[in-house]
């Protein structure tokens, strides 16, 4: 008894998704082929289109389809303050608090030596170039308050202060161990207002 | 702050996968774009190819790229016995036991009135046509021993017996290696009622 090769390939491809084991991948493949072929084709197109069109903003490093993202192009922003976040979701959370009118830099990760994630993986050179443009005077570190996020903030702080920049950190209004994405906007707003020099 | 439309579309498309909520979908989208664009393109191709090439075997209803699947084309099989299973995975499990040399019919589901899954969804007409070909003389019901699987077996049994076919069911009992102390009472009761001479 042989499984059709295109079904095997689909199951194996689904397994490359984070958090999907062999049983889940098989269930997904069966579901798509049995009940949702339109969904399979739409997901196929969405994957191809995103992989082809999504790039990183030349200034803030977030996902965008342009060279410079909408936020970085926004003329109303305070160009002297730069907020450093781990992910686009974290940036969105901060935007929703309406407490920050500066610009962002999105690391797309955090330092994690045990997982082999070093300064290059969080685009530290790009951040240094961005932060030392002569316009930015303060960098607010808004990485998560996890061990890795704190270590990342510390490392970036040392690096940027050595280049004469003022560096601050969100206040510890955010619960220790908490991830920004899951914290309520009021807490983040308080932490932004209480940010302190590091 | 606007999320790029192709990223939004990708996240929404991933959410249509069974068991994937908004947070998981976003994490998957970020992972693919950040770390595995080749994986994204491969999954895109696998989805399109499977959706285009996978059909249901005209005889046994399983997934195949041909009109008739390899198993149904196998000349070594006993064409007088048909084993009814819920999914291709169940068929594979039975194949691995090497105890069955007949042919199969794959329901691609089980009756579940509460979920709106009726006889049409498990291809009952196709099964009746297959089982009444004049060659099949016995149908072995190997649906799961869940409430829904049992109800499905009962329904199919009544339908096929009314057409003069011999219908059997996998034996219920204590699992091989099972210790009575850890087997539920219902299973032991069934094993007692179904006890066989040795
Ligand atoms: Zn940008
Ligand atoms: Zn077949």
UniProtKB/TrEMBL annotation, chains A, B:
<keyword id="KW-0227">DNA damage</keyword>
<dbReference type="InterPro" id="IPR006171">
    <property type="entry name" value="TOPRIM_dom"/>
</dbReference>
<dbReference type="Pfam" id="PF02132">
    <property type="entry name" value="RecR_ZnF"/>
</dbReference>
<keyword id="KW-0863">Zinc-finger</keyword>
<dbReference type="InterPro" id="IPR023627">
    <property type="entry name" value="Rcmb_RecR"/>
</dbReference>
<keyword id="KW-0234">DNA repair</keyword>
<comment type="function">
    <text>May play a role in DNA repair. It seems to be involved in an RecBC-independent recombinational process of DNA repair. It may act with RecF and RecO.</text>
</comment>
<keyword id="KW-0479">Metal-binding</keyword>
<dbReference type="InterPro" id="IPR034137">
    <property type="entry name" value="TOPRIM_RecR"/>
</dbReference>
<dbReference type="InterPro" id="IPR015967">
    <property type="entry name" value="Rcmb_RecR_Znf"/>
</dbReference>
<dbReference type="Pfam" id="PF21175">
    <property type="entry name" value="RecR_C"/>
</dbReference>
<feature type="domain" description="Toprim">
    <location>
        <begin position="80"/>
        <end position="175"/>
    </location>
</feature>
<comment type="similarity">
    <text>Belongs to the RecR family.</text>
</comment>
<protein>
    <recommendedName>
        <fullName>Recombination protein RecR</fullName>
    </recommendedName>
</protein>
<dbReference type="Pfam" id="PF21176">
    <property type="entry name" value="RecR_HhH"/>
</dbReference>
<feature type="zinc finger region" description="C4-type">
    <location>
        <begin position="57"/>
        <end position="72"/>
    </location>
</feature>
<dbReference type="InterPro" id="IPR000093">
    <property type="entry name" value="DNA_Rcmb_RecR"/>
</dbReference>
<keyword id="KW-0862">Zinc</keyword>
<dbReference type="Pfam" id="PF13662">
    <property type="entry name" value="Toprim_4"/>
</dbReference>
<keyword id="KW-0233">DNA recombination</keyword>
